[in-house]
Amino acid sequence: VVWSVFPAMDESGGIASSVRGGLPPEASRLFRVYRTMANMLEKRGYMIPREMREMTPGGFVGKFGEYPSRESLTILVEKSDDDSNQLFVFFPEDEKVGVKPISVYTDRMKAESVLNAILVLRVDMTPFAKQAVQEMSDSFRIEHFKEAELLVDITQHQLVPEHQVLTQNEKLELLKRYRLKETQLPRIQPNDPVARYYGMKRGTVVKIIRPSETAGRYVTYRVCM
User: Fold this and answer.
1) Percent of the chain whose pLDDT exceeds 90
2) Are strands 82-90 and 116-121 parallel, antiparallel or unpaired?
3) Exposure of 181 by Cβ count < 10 A (0-12 exposed, 13-18 middle, 19+ buried)?
4) Domain-located, residue 216
5) For the whole model, what pTM was predicted?
6) Residue 157 has pLDDT above 60, yes or no
7) Domain hosting residue 176, numbered range
8) Pairwise CA distance, residues 195 & 92, whole Å
9) Rounded to a whole number, what is the largest CA-CA distance in the chain?
10) The RNA polymerase Rpb5 N-terminal domain covers which part of the protein (predicted)?
């Protein structure tokens, strides 16, 4: 079962004080992380069940308790246009994740034929764990975010313009229309926070839409390189 939470927002984009005050600090923190993760998955084109979107703070505590087990927060989603394209979200218990949990996760991914995963880290991974993830990159794509990076949804910040990741067909159409090679497009780095949010890979093209006083909106394209 996949679950998520969408707590009430105040004008600054943070959790409303009534929500913050109603949950213990750890649950409140995970609540915020969960909300961002659910938004992220939806914007990447994964199916997010209605009960996830509509879950209340009370429902979150009812489901996971006031002191949630991080393992119980595991999410499994599939792409809306391809049910074989699935992704796990794991919430490791360790503050610094080592090689052993990585092996446990990849064993589960292998058993369930899931090739993609996101790790939500309390603090970080050990250098050996990072190396293990890198060495498995031919078989599995494992991304990782620190909890602190997910407390706020960066795409909801007023200074971040709308981003739309193009499909392969849309990318080819764009290049053909303007008679461009992808290397001629402006670049966005793979470690850019927005590129990471959308899970962009090298060669991914993103459409960026900014408001414009004269034209109404100003559209640019960038390639992840």
Assistant:
1) 76
2) parallel
3) exposed
4) yes
5) 0.87
6) yes
7) 157-224
8) 23
9) 56
10) 26-109
